[in-house]
Amino acid sequence: HKVCELYKNLYLTSPKISKRDRFGIWVKIENLCLEIMDLAITASLEVKNNKLSVLNLARIKIEVLKRLIRIAYELNIIENKKYINLESDLQEISRMTNGWIKYLR
Q1: Full DSSP string of the chain
Q2: Which of 22, 48, 71, 77 is most exposed, with the fewest beta carbons within 10 Å of its own?
């Protein structure tokens, strides 16, 4: 599950984040990732008629997470290499979610 891998990556990055940022923006980033994981699991177990609304909510949260990670990078909270890895994972998660949404329509 790609979202689980993303969360593990975020979690392992956490100790390298300054205390101020770890309890600020980074908490929001980690929590948002957990919410996306929750929505992905919910969508996979939901009946077909209910999947679309759950996936649309997940898609919105993925976009918010992308922005927050970009802000973390622009504020030098995370290094370039880490940003590129996280962004790459998020792009793939976004593509998979959008593909799932298109399939259901």
Answers
A1: -HHHHHHHHHHHHGGGS-HHHHTTHHHHHHHHHHHHHHHHHHHHHS-HHHHHHHHHHHHHHHHHHHHHHHHHHHTTSS-HHHHHHHHHHHHHHHHHHHHHHHHH-
A2: 48
